[in-house]
Amino acid sequence: MKIELENVEPAQIEARSFEIITEELGEFPLIPGTEPIVKRCIHTSADFDYAKNLCFSDNVVSLAIDAIKNGASIVTDTQMGRAGINKKKLARYGGTVQCFMSDKDVAEAAKTNGTTRAVASMDKAAALGEKFIFAVGNAPTALVRLYELIREGKLDPHLVIGVPVGFVNVVQSKELIMDAEVPYIVARGRKGGSNIAACIVNALLYMME
Amino acid sequence: MKIELENVEPAQIEARSFEIITEELGEFPLIPGTEPIVKRCIHTSADFDYAKNLCFSDNVVSLAIDAIKNGASIVTDTQMGRAGINKKKLARYGGTVQCFMSDKDVAEAAKTNGTTRAVASMDKAAALGEKFIFAVGNAPTALVRLYELIREGKLDPHLVIGVPVGFVNVVQSKELIMDAEVPYIVARGRKGGSNIAACIVNALLYMME
Predict the structure, then answer these.
(1) Which residues contact B198 (CB under 8 A, 6 or more apart)?
(2) Domains of chain B, earliest start first
(3) pLDDT digits over B96-126, tens only?
(4) Of B46, B116, B173, the CB nearest to A166
(5) By the CB < 8 Å criterion, does B144 face chain A?
(6) Does any CB of chain A come closer than 8 Å to the CB of residue B13?
């Protein structure tokens, strides 16, 4: 078998990828203004399901961009999500990315309360009293806890990116957060991941350039 | 709509997820000995395509486990992949995870040679003369470079985990590496990612317990 490589300059690889994605999406209907986010999720996963499963609350994209512009910081539920976010671009506006999952006090609180560390790390974020953007790519328990904190009036985030992945309470946690009266970007169903969480944040950052 | 959460203890979530995956895979034929890797990729992505697209060279799982046991280190092509690997478990055997993508000399070499940084970081790894495990979850150019280095006799890895994701030369890069006479674990086609690269390494580590 002859394997032929396409000759694309390094700087053009991403643009060429987005061309292919746009071509293959064809006439598939996307919500105006959300296209760069949907396409970047497909770019990150090579999975066209994201054209169907991504859900956006009203005006969430402009809300998110305003928040970032005004220096909002981002809380993730994994170090992987943290690693994937373009921290240099975020820092231009004053924001940082925080992940409390490896913190000693989070491990202790989780043990004491019989919760996941993800729950304890959302509690820690809430206790800081700052208005954050949450990017949850792994733990449905984190998303459920955000729902509870918001409903109890203990947390008021700019928005919640709710894209945990998996099989136990993942589907439900996403339906809950879409019912929480908080701006959201959610990948409905089982799919998502830390990479998807990071790429949604990055898509927002790249839309601001 | 009533949203009901399944009551699963934090410590049991992963086991319950694997039960569901096993149930839904049903009688789907997997290569004996590779099941924990395939199932962990599905666990990480909620994408059952990995049951079909993962390719393993002969005895690669036992080869990989032996290499890790003997202290092999891992080179990734993203900081996200690095972040996702269980470094504590790997350290038990003496291995570390290295990612050269943010190194200054790599950025300079890429610029000088008109390559991607991923290519330059593979060259840097090769120049170290160490027998590594490569875990490529993002850049097909990295995988193509590994193929060239192996064919030119400049690199002799323990194995290559080849799971870049995307649309430009991704499919081809994986076919090349499977043709390179190196032990491999490859996700054939467009799918993969840094999360998948990390989870394959973790699956190997958890099989060793």
Answers:
(1) A80, B76, B80, B81, B82, B83, B84, B85, B135, B137
(2) 51-207 (3.40.50.10230)
(3) 999 999 999 999 999 999 999 999 999 999 9
(4) B46
(5) yes
(6) yes
